[in-house]
Amino acid sequence: MTQVGFAAFDADNHYYEATDAFIRHVDPRMHRRCMQWATIDGRERLLVAGRVNRFIPNPTFDPVARPGCLDDYFRGRIPAADMREAFGKLEPISAAYRDRDARIELLDAQGLQACFLFPTLGVGMEAALENDVDALTAAFGGFNRWLADDWGFAYLGRIFAAGYLTLADPDWALDELDWLIANDVRVVNVRPSSVPDGAGGRRSLGHPAHEPVWQRLDEYGITVAMHSGDSGYGFVLEHWGVNSEFESFRYDALKSLLTYSPISDALASLLAEGVLSRYRSLRVATIETGSEWVWPFVKKLAKAYSQQSHAFEEDPLEVFRRQVWVSPYYEDDLHGLRDLIGADHMLFGSDFPHAEGLADPVSFVHDLDGFGDDDIELVMRTNGLSLTERAAAAAAV
């Protein structure tokens, strides 16, 4: 394993969900509207809202792809006409992907002090349930309680599992956030997308209905992570005649080249509608969305402010640099990102144990060649650890 002279913080670690993650704590009367398992043609398939869900082709995760097996593909070293060929041989699931004590042992072996821990399956489920808000909140309320059972939200001060928060029902979101805070949550995952209103319409993230949630997150110093997943942008694909069903690793050349960026749009809502200016302690971390979107977004921010400064409470680019942290892909322009937003707002994330991540998480440091020692420690450790710290108001909880 790579050594860096200090124990690192990985802002993008993952678990593989237990098969009952969305079932264990959900009222059985809601299973049909939420999640169920079914055997179809001899294979275990996940039904979401009564339909076979293909977000993850192998939702049981056993066997599963080897960590980092797609590294050469994502670095552009090899083409892969057949993704199955690129994955290679699958392996039995490791205990460390589902057991927190086994994961602590693995963190030690990998030279990691701590990590944020995100869903694999969970980041694709909100889109599948957004037309049934009651089912959506039931599913993720149960999911968070499974997460508390199996992982905890700040286990041994080393594993910081992200609670999942949907804003579809703002009253539910506020109650759920209070429960998460009482259970020592440090980071919550909020989908980078607009929010279904339950009546066929949608709300922006900055809509007044969400104000109490942003206020509570700000008050308690809970980091908001926006992790990649199914952001419901199928309408863009449909406009161009591309199959809009989200299926991981299903490659379509046109889809890969279309200009749409859920993470940019989500941050645009938070900035243009003043959420981050009103709540200056609110911290947003963009995870597994890379950083190539940052340059065009920053350009838009600068132009919008120069032309319509009266529409903003303050310079949105300065707000971005103050309250947003970016976890780039290892193949991105890391030096350029440092020059644009500063090393103090960059996060190291390995995506371990996913196929497209790093088998040796700390090896990310090799892509920081040319960074000074102080900047390397910021990116690889200090920045991430700082995002686990709650505000002073949390001390009483």
Descriptors:
397 residues, alpha/beta, TIM Barrel, 3-stranded parallel sheet, 13% strand, globular
Describe the model.
By secondary structure, the chain is an alpha/beta fold. It has one domain: Alpha-Beta Barrel (TIM Barrel), CATH 3.20.20.140. It contains 15 helices and 13 strands. The protein has helices spanning 71-74, 83-87, 100-110, 125-129, 133-150, 170-182, 211-220, 234-239, 253-257, 262-272, 275-278, 294-307, 316-323, 334-341, 373-386; strands at residues 8-14, 35-40, 43-48, 51-52, 112-118, 159-161, 163-164, 187-189, 195-196, 202-203, 223-227, 284-287, 324-326. It has a five-stranded parallel sheet with strand order 7-8-11-12-13. Strands 1-5-6 form a three-stranded parallel sheet. It has a three-stranded antiparallel sheet with strand order 2-3-4. Strand 3 and strand 4 form a beta hairpin. The two termini are 38 Å apart. The model is unreliable at 393-397 (pLDDT under 50).
How many structural domains in the coordinates?
1
End-to-end Cα distance = 38 Å
Which H/E pattern describes the elements? EEEEHHHEHHEEHEEEHEHHHHEHHEHH
CATH architecture grouping: Alpha-Beta Barrel
Biggest beta sheet summary: 5 strands, parallel
- What is the arithmetic mean of pLDDT? 92
Strand order of the largest sheet: 7-8-11-12-13
Which CATH C-level class is it? Alpha Beta
Global geometry: globular
Please report the total strand number as a whole number: 13
Q: Using the CA coordinates, give the radius of gyration.
A: 20 Å
Low-confidence stretches: 393-397
Structural class: alpha/beta
Percent strand equals 5-15%
The CATH topology is given as TIM Barrel
Which superfamily, in CATH terms, is the homologous superfamily?
A: Metal-dependent hydrolases
Q: What is the number of helical segments per DSSP (H or I, 4+ residues)?
A: 15
Helix content: 25-40%
